[in-house]
Give the backbone structure.
Amino acid sequence: MRANFGAKGVREMLEANAKTARAVRTDIAADEVFDASVALDEVLESSGYAEQRAAKMDVTDFLELLAAFHKRDFHFSS
């Protein structure tokens, strides 16, 4: 999974989406530092899916990973 999310285009899209999501939240200070690359790596590590192969994951695994991304303001849209 780390390689899938390591692609430049994927990281750029997720970073832009996270910045947008964080901009509309009222519980986050405007000057709070947010490093999307570090946060993305933290999500993959803390969820336990960083070294998993996507082909070996089931639907539950993907939903758990999606929930972990959402908790850190990463959303999947373009």
Notes: The chain is about 60% helix and 0% strand. Residues 1 and 51 are 6 Å apart (CA to CA). The two ends are 20 Å apart (CA to CA).
